[in-house]
Specification:
globular, alpha/beta, seven-stranded mixed β-sheet, two-stranded antiparallel sheet
Length: 236
């Protein structure tokens, strides 16, 4: 019997664990699970913070690192790949494509093309991504991915679709879509989740590890470690 395929589309490095980590762990155990990174993450304000001289309370380390956008994106990719492996995804199923969007510029049209390109390879795959619903402050790349997936589902090009709500935006989501059924994802295999989080907290500048994810949204990582809760809903 052929194993089913599951495609997780994540807008940035760290969204895969913050919003979908528990689901990735579960699907990686039973399906051919792929995680596709849809932007390069190059525009994060953390790059500026890393080059401002001074110490940081997060890791008691010294800042003064002048990274190009390309270098910065590459170091974020390292965190992403390590996180995905910790969640149980095979190396060859972790995708950071060269034609992904520049951070902040992902459009619904480009997101459609990216999703369709993987559906051509895996036509009956289940698709998972970030919910397009919530307050209007939802980051552009997040919303574009969700809207593209929803449009493809409504056109019948995606047969099985699930959305994940960013935990820190769950209250806004419920206000925006009070009638949409959502449920909690609480994973029993918490060691994998903790290991994935650790990939974004690693600080070792000599090894070019700058804890970029943790610098960006430390409170989100801290909350996930404590609560281990993520949220999912159907397209309807």
């Amino acid at each position: 019997m052929m194993m089913e395929t599951t495609l997780f589309f994540t807008p940035h490095q760290d969204d895969e664990v913050l919003s979908m980590g528990s689901a990735i762990i579960e699907h990686a155990k039973v399906s051919d699970t792929h995680v596709i990174l849809c932007s390069d993450g190059s525009k994060s304000t953390v790059r500026k913070r890393l080059r401002e001289d001074g110490t940081c309370s997060f890791h008691l380390g010294y800042h003064g690192f002048y990274l190009t956008e390309k270098e910065f994106s590459g170091y974020r990719d390292t965190e992403f790949k390590e996180s995905c492996e910790a969640l149980g995804v095979k190396k060859e199923n972790i995708h950071a494509d060269k034609d992904r969007a520049v951070d902040g510029s992902l459009t619904k049209e480009k997101a459609r093309k990216m999703i369709l390109s993987y559906l051509e390879k895996y036509p009956n795959a289940k698709v998972k991504t970030i919910s397009p619903f919530g307050d209007m402050l939802t980051q552009n790349d997040h919303r574009a991915l969700g809207e593209a997936a929803l449009e493809l589902y409504e056109e019948g090009k995606i047969k099985d679709l699930r959305f994940y709500v960013e935990p820190y935006k769950y209250e806004e989501f419920k206000q925006d879509k009070p009638d949409v059924r959502s449920w909690k994802v609480l994973n029993d295999d918490e060691e994998k989740l903790f290991k994935a989080i650790k990939a974004y907290k690693k600080w070792d500048p000599k090894d070019r590890r700058f804890a970029i994810g943790y610098h960006s949204v430390s409170s989100y990582f801290d909350s996930l470690e404590i609560n281990k809760i993520q949220y999912i809903h159907t397209p309807e």
